[in-house]
């Protein structure tokens, strides 16, 4: 899966699941503030990630993810690692 396809898929589920306006999503925007995430929302995000991309997410994986770009990089790295196995 290409980086562009991954970002497109991530943005689509963020808009659908977290009801955020697509124009608010940009690589430099703060993920938590833009999506207004609380601890339960992070659990929802883990479930959505696992079901959409087929890899397991650990809570500590979210440490250091601040921007949408950080999130895209994380998902791309995990998808690439999964494809290599």
From TrEMBL:
An example molecular function term from Gene Ontology annotations: acyl carrier activity
Classification via Pfam families: PP-binding
Modified residue annotations for O-(pantetheine 4'-phosphoryl)serine: 39
Gene Ontology CC annotations of this record = cytosol; membrane
Residue ranges crossing the lipid bilayer per the database entry:
none
Q: Does the keyword Lipid biosynthesis apply?
A: yes
Which SUPFAM superfamilies does the record associate with it? ACP-like (SSF47336)
Please provide the record's keywords in A-Z order. Cytoplasm, Fatty acid biosynthesis, Fatty acid metabolism, Lipid biosynthesis, Lipid metabolism, Phosphopantetheine, Phosphoprotein
Q: Name one GO biological process term.
A: lipid A biosynthetic process
Name of the featured protein: Acyl carrier protein
Q: Please give the organism.
A: Flavihumibacter solisilvae
């Amino acid at each position: 899966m290409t980086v562009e396809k991954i970002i497109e898929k991530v943005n689509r589920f963020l808009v659908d699941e977290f009801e955020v306006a697509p124009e608010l999503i940009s690589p430099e925007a703060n993920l938590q503030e833009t999506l207004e995430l609380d601890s339960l929302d992070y659990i929802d995000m883990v479930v959505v990630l696992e079901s959409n991309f087929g890899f397991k997410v650990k809570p500590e994986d979210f440490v250091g993810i601040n921007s949408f770009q950080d999130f895209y990089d994380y998902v791309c790295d995990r998808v690439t690692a999964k494809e290599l196995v």
